[in-house]
Amino acid sequence: MRFLIAGLTLLFASQASAQKIDDFLNNLKTFQADFEQVVENDSGMTLPVYGVFYLKRPGLFRWDYEGDSAQLIVADGKRVWLLDRELDQVSHQSQKSALRGTPA
Asked: Which residue, of 2, 37, 77, 82, has the fewest CB within 10 Å?
């Protein structure tokens, strides 16, 4: 019986937490955060990558990666643009296509 009560308590707590997250995201208009992302290179070594993320709803965001593999990814509401600073190259595609299958 204790396990049933504990399980139900966890279930309701997780549903309440999920609702809080949904409420937060639904009311979010702008957001900015520094980030650290760990990537694995071809040799299997993990390397940290740093940058800043900006969001403005609806449909606008910017990922600004710093360091050796610096890139800039910008969404303008219609297209997603990628600037590879190392290659000095810009590419783009429709935002709908670029974000397909992602939580964005």
From this structure: 2
